[in-house]
Specification:
The complex is a heterodimer of chains A (509) and B (307).
Chain A (H helix, E strand, L loop, with lengths): L5 E10 L2 E11 L3 E6 L6 H8 L7 E6 L2 E3 L4 H7 L1 E4 L11 H6 L11 H12 L14 H13 L5 E5 L7 H16 L3 E5 L3 H7 L2 E6 L2 E6 L6 H9 L17 E10 L9 E9 L3 E5 L6 H9 L9 E3 L2 E2 L5 H6 L2 E4 L14 H7 L8 E2 L2 E2 L1 H14 L16 H13 L5 E5 L7 H16 L3 E5 L3 H7 L2 E6 L2 E2 L3 E2 L5 H8 L2 H11 L1
Parallel strand pairs in A: 3-8, 3-9, 6-7, 7-8, 13-20, 13-21, 16-19, 19-20
Antiparallel strand pairs in A: 1-2, 1-4, 4-5, 9-10, 11-12, 11-14, 14-15, 17-18, 21-22, 21-23
Helix pairs in contact in A: 11-12, 13-14
Chain B lengths: L2 H30 L7 H19 L2 H25 L4 H19 L25 H6 L3 H19 L1 H11 L1 H6 L4 H27 L11 H11 L4 H23 L6 H5 L1 H15 L20
The chains are: A alpha/beta (509), B mainly alpha (307).
Chain lengths: 509, 307
């Protein structure tokens, strides 16, 4: 057997007292797609950053073709034939596609012939791109194409992809897999990081599973169920979310009547004639790729953006022109997408953060003075009720991990027993255990008779919690359909705006 | 009005716009890399006093100008140390730099107040300066004017076409991504800040060596702040800096001429005119900001690599 194309041997890297990588070894052959699995904080990112020269290991070696080499910088990694597609796009919004790609090439490579090289790669791998467009005008799928072309233009032998499908529609993901299989057939070694275990089982030849910085298994992912892989990652049983009970659906709690809203700024999305109903006891899931109007829809629902009064009706009250306090007084609760700075103030304590979303409701104020005992008691209840790992109600919000802070901000709203919950990206960037707990809480809230509107990019999540599904594309919302009747390819088409095109075609016809 | 009078006014407008062009083009480069250096006024004052002292002792305008450049760069290096080295808040560090420069320049120049030397010679360009009507107006300037126009052209080319300029724009747009691609974010930003300091220092030296030409404390009289506003006015595009500087320079001269012509307006109001124009320009610019902004996305944001 020839030596592996790339191997990392006995890599150890400490950050202070934390051992991010503890004697990690990984080898990938030519023509192999190798999955790197693990929870947030398991050490996957550290490992690939070491391979790409962004972080130097304390111990261990990197070898290409059996020859050890030192990767001191990303430039050296690229020169050695190691390419990287980043999880959070490392693109420059105000530069053009060609300029973004030029940035990874040696300074001697002129911009002039670059357009031809981009077209050549684009044709070869089926990744069409206009080199002269600025990045901010591209969709998430197009941006990822730029990332991939930028990696491929250097003719890498090893390509690392960090959660490449997290922002793609199912159709876009399928296109990506075709490209990856093509690279595999060309004999390249691919390292593939993903949380989507079904995807890994379909695509990858082998998998290395990290837990708390150590390799716990190297296996053929096709030989395991997604559930079994998840247990290997977590080291314990995750437990499936209990499905919606199908409890009796009650009166209409939230109604949107032709809600339209102009885009707040150049990069924003306008909402067009959004009409929907959410009834008591029902979870309505709104699917869609980021940047199709989710933030704008949430802002309109929460009252951060004002609309015509009649456009938003909560429990029979027209509140489109009212602020969030009035809506909260009608027993509505809101959890925005961004934990840090939107849902919670990082520098403030958990107790103070709890007060921020309840200050206008009775219970915590006495004659204009904060009742600290009651506030502390409510905060302790949230921490205990949602298993938030923290030192106590006085801990600053920023000291919590992403998953724990998300459990806190969701728990803060749910503890009020709201009649209506609006929640945007409930488990974005949250580990599997915390995500399962949050989804379970959403389902239970609806079972107790509350109406819930969940906006999410994660289809698995939406199918787990929703009774009805619709999709937001370019600010247009498709008509809600029962989740059980809508398969993934159908919702994928709706996320891509198929509904809108059909409507326009019908209109023209 | 006679054409001689008109030519004289035009020449003074150009002369008063040169320090603005010099300081603003340097600040523009710094801001394109994401560094908002509010210390322009302080760097200008240090450039002014050191330029004057250098020229006074050497007798050479060129050596004086180089002293001004060095002083501006030294001030910028201090700012870079604080904001890039120690990730101090850029606004606070810039304001501190201006206050520091005002005090230090007064101290350094205490013994040079009131001393005089001849202004920088106006260069006579064969043929061009002899053109009828516009020759004296456009081509009768001192060396600083040509350096200023050359710098604007150079910066415009650098940002648009050079690889280093592309790197600089990338760092100003998204320092985290630039770092992930292996670019030296701090190094690129430091060079941009130093260039800004050099330009501000040169601008200050122009004031004491050609414009006034003597040293008095605080003689930059807020030009550093106008230069900062000019960068925004120009929406971070080099050639628009020239346009804006002529506009502001024009407002300054208009105010002087109006006083000379005895227009019955309080002189304080006329003196405030350039600043009113600045404020109006900023408001107008913000009104159309919604249609698209060229503001470097990471302007004013510190960057600390997490490794």
């Amino acid at each position: 057997m020839p030596p592996p194309l790339v191997s990392l041997d006995h890599i150890t890297r400490r950050f202070g007292t934390l051992v991010a990588n503890d004697d990690v070894s990984l080898a990938v052959q030519r023509g192999e797609i190798h999955a790197l699995l693990g929870e947030n904080g398991a050490g996957k990112s550290t490992l690939v950053k070491i391979l790409y020269g962004l972080i130097q290991p304390d111990n261990g070696t990197i070898s290409l073709d059996g020859t050890a080499l030192r990767v001191g910088s990303p430039q050296q990694a690229r020169a050695a034939g190691i390419g990287m597609v980043f999880q959070h796009f490392s693109l420059f919004d105000n530069l053009t596609v060609a300029e973004n790609i030029a940035l990874v090439l040696p300074a001697t490579a002129g911009l002039k012939r670059l357009d031809q090289r981009i077209s050549a790669i684009a044709t070869r791998y089926g990744l069409p791109l206009d080199p002269q467009r600025p990045i901010w005008s591209l969709s998430a799928g197009e941006r990822q194409r730029v990332e991939i072309v930028r990696a491929l233009i250097q003719e890498p032998r090893v390509l690392v992809l960090d959660e490449p499908t997290s922002v793609l529609t199912p159709q876009e993901a399928t296109t990506l897999f075709a490209t990856l299989n093509r690279l595999k057939a060309e004999g390249k070694a691919l390292i593939y990081i993903s949380h989507k275990l079904e995807e890994v089982r379909g695509l990858c030849d082998r998998a290395t599973i990290l837990r708390a910085g150590r390799v716990v298994a190297t296996c053929d992912p096709k030989a395991y169920s997604a559930h079994a892989l998840g247990e290997l990652m977590m080291g314990r049983d995750i437990g499936a979310v209990r499905p919606p009970s199908g409890a009796a659906v009650g009166a209409v709690r939230l109604r949107l009547n032709q809600l339209s809203l102009a885009a707040p700024d150049l990069h924003g999305v306008s909402l067009h004639d959004i009409t929907l109903e959410v009834r008591d006891g029902e979870v309505l899931g709104v699917a869609g790729i980021a940047g199709n109007g989710q933030s704008e829809l949430f802002a309109a629902l929460s009252g951060e953006s004002r609309t015509l009064a009649d456009a938003i009706v909560i429990d029979g009250h027209a509140v489109g022109d009212q602020g969030i306090n009035r809506r909260r007084a009608l027993d509505a609760a809101f959890v925005p997408e961004e934990r840090n700075g939107h849902a919670a103030v990082g520098a403030m304590s958990l107790a103070d953060n709890l007060f921020l979303s309840r200050h206008a409701l009775p219970g915590l104020l006495q004659h204009g003075v904060i009742d600290n005992n009651a506030l502390r008691a409510r905060t302790v209840e949230v921490i205990a009720g949602f298993d938030v790992r923290t030192t106590g109600p006085e801990a600053a919000a920023r000291t919590l991990s992403g998953g724990n802070l998300q459990k806190f901000v969701v728990g803060r709203e749910l503890a009020r027993q709201p009649r209506l919950l609006i929640i945007n990206q409930p488990t974005w960037g949250v580990d599997a255990l915390a995500a399962a707990a949050i989804r379970q809480a959403i389902v239970e809230l609806a079972t107790r008779g509350a109406a819930v509107l969940v906006i999410s990019q994660d289809l698995d999540e939406l199918y787990e919690v929703s009774d009805h599904l619709c999709a937001l594309a370019h600010g247009h919302l498709s008509a809600p359909r029962p989740a059980a009747e809508l398969d993934r390819s159908a919702i994928g088409l709706l996320m891509g705006g198929a509904n809108q095109f059909a409507a326009e075609a019908a209109h023209v016809g | 009005m006679s054409s001689v009078f008109f030519q004289a006014v035009a020449a003074t407008i150009i002369a008063s716009s040169i320090p603005l062009i010099l300081a603003a083009i340097g600040e523009l480069v710094a801001e394109r890399s994401g560094m908002l250096n509010l210390g322009v006024e302080g760097m200008m004052l240090m450039g002014a006093v050191c330029g004057f002292i250098g020229a006074y002792f050497s007798g050479s305008t060129l050596i004086g100008a180089l002293c001004g450049v060095a002083a501006g760069m030294a001030m910028a290096a201090l700012y870079g140390l604080l904001t890039i080295g120690f990730a101090v808040n850029q606004v606070a560090a810039g304001l501190a730099l201006t206050i520091f420069g005002q005090g230090l320049s007064g101290l350094v120049g205490a013994h040079f107040v009131g001393l005089k030397r001849d202004g920088a010679p106006h260069l006579h360009l064969p043929w061009l300066s002899d053109l009828p009507y516009i020759g004296h107006m456009l081509f009768g300037e001192d060396g600083f004017a040509y350096v200023a126009v050359g710098l604007v052209a150079g910066v415009a080319w650098f940002l648009r076409y050079s690889r280093a300029g592309l790197d600089l724009r990338a760092v100003g747009d998204n320092p985290a991504s630039a770092h992930a691609l292996g670019m030296p974010v701090g190094g690129i930003r430091l060079k941009a800040v130093l260039f800004g300091g050099a330009c501000a220092g040169l601008s200050g030296a122009y004031l004491t060596l050609a414009y006034t030409p003597f040293w008095s404390p605080g003689l930059s009289a807020g030009r550093g702040w106008i230069a900062l506003a000019l960068v925004v006015f120009a929406s971070w595009k080099p050639w628009r800096v020239v346009l804006g500087a002529l506009l502001f320079g024009g407002a300054t001269i208009l105010q002087l001429q109006a006083q000379a012509l005895g227009i019955r307006l309080p002189s304080q109001m006329l003196s405030a005119l350039p600043y009113v124009v600045t404020i109006l320009a900023l408001i107008l610019l913000n009104l159309r900001r919604n249609r698209g902004s060229l503001t470097p996305a990471a302007l004013g944001l510190p960057f600390v690599a997490d490794t």
